[in-house]
């Protein structure tokens, strides 16, 4: 019997930062093997959702639930979510001076996967993944993200994804700050990894459509003012490219005015 349980289920998620509401009832489902794109204007809550899904302690879940593989992970710490198969590629990866990328990846694999992989097996797997992603082997000897270009930092994130072998990869504005050539290289890496592990699900969070010219989503969600206002197929990307976010922002403003009017009417009774 086929398992129909969504890999990720977000149910009416409401999140605040320092007491300020950011997400106002986000609901979505991601199934194994699917590629989802979450798009929205600046300030809509995209990165808040990414960080909340991975359990960043600054983001307070006020109501709602995050379920992964059927388990409620809403209150789990980030390391426990990583061990369960969740991964977040950061918008702005930090540098770790003095720690080579190879050693960083070795520690990350040991912490997240907890297996007793020998040093020889690790090096073999690292070489295989770098070959898959068309990366020069010398890259592993450089200090993690120190002096890396924007594209190199994002490629290092994709390599980390390949080594950790997550069930769900969340990519928070991976296209941010990349020129067209770097973007193509990173996207090709994601596609190669997805082809090698078709069961892996990917949630791409982005402001622009350009990365979706190279990675085709199965489902697209539009996030406006902390809520998913529409979901559809890849054709929704073209609609956003043609119309922008203004029609969705206008609809949200009208919905807010209606809620206000109802509230005033109710209080006046």
| Class derived from helix and strand content | alpha/beta
Tell me roughly what share of residues is in helical segments.
25-40%
CATH superfamily: P-loop containing nucleotide triphosphate hydrolases
Terminal CA distance reads 55 Å
Please provide the count of β strands: 12
Q: Strand percentage, roughly?
A: 25-35%
* Number of helical elements: 8
Q: Provide the CATH topology.
A: Rossmann fold
Strand line-up of the largest beta sheet: 6-9-10-3-11-12
Task: Supply Rg.
Answer: 20 Å
CATH class category label: Alpha Beta
Please mark out the parts with pLDDT under 50 across 5 or more consecutive residues, or reply none: none
- Which shape, going by the Cα principal axes? globular
- Count up the domains: 1
Tell me what the structure shows.
The chain is of the alpha/beta class and 269 residues long. It has one domain (8-267): Rossmann fold. The chain has eight helices and twelve strands. It has helices spanning 46-53, 78-83, 101-113, 119-132, 150-164, 180-196, 235-243, 246-267; strands at residues 8-17, 20-30, 35-39, 59-68, 71-72, 86-89, 96-100, 143-144, 168-172, 201-206, 219-224, 227-232. The protein has a six-stranded mixed sheet, with helices on both faces. A four-stranded antiparallel sheet has the order 2-1-4-5. Helix 6 (180-196) links the parallel strand 9 and strand 10 (201-206).
Write the layout of secondary structure elements.
Elements: E1 8-17, E2 20-30, E3 35-39, H1 46-53, E4 59-68, E5 71-72, H2 78-83, E6 86-89, E7 96-100, H3 101-113, H4 119-132, E8 143-144, H5 150-164, E9 168-172, H6 180-196, E10 201-206, E11 219-224, E12 227-232, H7 235-243, H8 246-267
Parallel strand pairs: 3-10, 3-11, 6-9, 9-10
Antiparallel strand pairs: 1-2, 1-4, 4-5, 7-8, 11-12
């Amino acid at each position: 019997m086929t398992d129909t349980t969504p890999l990720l289920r977000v149910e009416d998620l409401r999140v605040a930062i320092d007491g300020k509401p950011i997400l106002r009832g986000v609901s979505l489902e991601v199934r194994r093997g699917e590629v989802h794109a979450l798009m929205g204007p600046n300030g809509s809550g995209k990165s808040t959702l990414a960080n909340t899904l991975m359990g960043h302690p600054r983001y307070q879940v006020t109501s709602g639930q995050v379920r992964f593989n059927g388990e409620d992970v809403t209150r789990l710490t980030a390391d426990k979510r990583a061990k369960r198969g969740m991964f977040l590629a950061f918008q702005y990866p930090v540098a770790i001076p003095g720690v080579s990328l190879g050693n960083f990846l070795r520690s990350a694999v040991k912490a997240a996967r907890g297996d007793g992989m020998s040093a020889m097996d690790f090096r073999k797997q690292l070489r295989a993944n770098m070959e898959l992603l068309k990366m020069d082997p010398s890259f592993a000897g450089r200090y993690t993200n120190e002096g890396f270009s924007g594209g190199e930092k994002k490629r290092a994130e994709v390599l980390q994804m390949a080594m950790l072998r997550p069930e769900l990869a969340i990519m928070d504005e991976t296209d941010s700050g990349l020129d067209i050539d770097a973007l193509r290289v990173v996207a090709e890496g994601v596609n190669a990894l997805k082809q090698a592990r078709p069961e892996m699900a990917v949630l791409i969070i982005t402001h622009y459509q350009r990365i979706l010219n190279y990675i085709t989503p199965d489902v697209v969600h539009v996030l406006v003012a902390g809520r998913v206002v529409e979901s559809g197929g890849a054709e929704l990307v073209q609609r956003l490219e043609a119309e922008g976010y203004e029609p969705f922002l206008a609809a949200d403003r009208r919905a807010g005015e209606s809620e206000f009017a109802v509230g005033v009417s109710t209080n006046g009774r």
